[in-house]
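Retro notes (design track)

What went well: tokenization of the new backbones is finally stable.
What didn't: we kept losing track of which sequence belonged to which structure.
Fix going forward: every design gets posted as structure first, then sequence, in one message. First example under the new rule, 326 residues:
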């Protein structure tokens, strides 16, 4: 699969953009584990053009991450165009436009998935951004605003006509948020549309190698994107890529998985500070499948998520490793 001149090979599996998740450390770890391409946290165009420092820091990328995409969102064409030019200057491999974020503070203000309620504006912004930069521009969106308005099969060709280089579709509507089960049938229908010439990337509920293989087989997509299935489990890319290539996979050892979690903790603290770095990493510790199925784990889990120093966290993790995996 190619996006512009970026060759991602056959059956690429990408790390989805996720706020407060896809920081530089996590992106690099996922690349090392086999992710074909990684995406930054989404960047507010309005905040970027106002030079908000915390937003500008999201443009920092490491050459070891490449290929890497920076994703932007917003509701005003002028701000999106200016932000796209600023992003291009930061040197990513492509620019992605977020028309899929369902959270109220984004979609409720008309940005992200909120654009699914104003298609003419969505198309105008897309065309303006494509014309403003020389990098490939891609779009990530959803099936539609709600179950009565699943418009993606009509919307896809119109976005393609704006000049985008690829389209990613999350198999839910905005009203579903992240509930229920992702519906890939319309993603497959869009991919099968003879009008579509750009790559179609599917997203939603892929957490295992078998699910990834089924997405390619059953819906014919050019690539898949893994989001929540990677939180606390960056090794999912290792497993999926190996299975797609060889029909089986050899999982990382428990020790290797603990090593990756420890690395995330350490690098999160180094990047921010001890207190905020631990707060940031708790989402990964809460979600990791490494601790699922452990009997009578509730109290240990509470201790793990309440630890507020690196020493406390390491002591608890060491106890978990020795008690349940030793």
């Amino acid at each position: 699969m190619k996006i512009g001149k970026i060759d991602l090979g056959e059956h690429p599996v990408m790390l989805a953009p996720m706020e407060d998740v896809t920081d530089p450390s996590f992106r690099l770890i996922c690349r090392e584990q086999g992710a074909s391409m990684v995406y930054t946290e989404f960047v507010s165009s309005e905040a970027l053009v106002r030079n908000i420092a915390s937003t500008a820091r999201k443009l920092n990328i490491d050459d070891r991450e490449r290929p890497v995409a920076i994703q932007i969102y917003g509701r005003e064409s002028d701000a999106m165009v200016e932000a796209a030019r600023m992003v291009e200057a930061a040197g990513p491999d492509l620019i992605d436009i977020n028309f899929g974020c369902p959270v109220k503070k984004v979609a409720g203000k008309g940005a992200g998935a909120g654009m699914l309620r104003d298609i003419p504006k969505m198309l105008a912004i897309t065309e303006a951004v494509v014309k403003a930069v020389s990098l490939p521009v891609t779009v990530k969106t959803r099936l539609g605003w709600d179950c009565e308005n699943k418009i993606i099969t009509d919307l896809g060709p119109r976005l393609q006509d704006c000049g985008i280089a690829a389209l990613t579709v999350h198999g839910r509507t905005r009203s579903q948020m992240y509930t229920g089960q992702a519906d890939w049938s319309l993603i497959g229908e869009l991919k099968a549309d003879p009008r579509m010439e750009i790559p179609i990337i599917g997203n939603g509920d892929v957490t295992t190698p078998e699910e990834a293989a089924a997405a390619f087989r059953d819906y014919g997509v050019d690539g898949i994107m893994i989001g929540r299935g990677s939180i606390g489990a960056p090794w999912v890319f290792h497993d999926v890529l190996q299975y797609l290539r060889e029909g089986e996979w050899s999982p990382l050892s428990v020790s290797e998985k603990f090593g990756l979690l420890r690395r995330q903790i350490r690098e999160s603290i180094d990047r921010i500070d001890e207190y905020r770095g631990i707060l940031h990493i708790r989402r990964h510790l809460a979600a990791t499948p490494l601790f699922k199925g452990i009997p009578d784990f509730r109290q240990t889990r509470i201790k793990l998520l309440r630890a507020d120093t690196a020493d406390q966290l390491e002591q608890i993790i060491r106890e978990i490793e020795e008690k349940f995996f030793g």
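Added context from the reviewer: The first strand starts at residue 2 and ends at 3.
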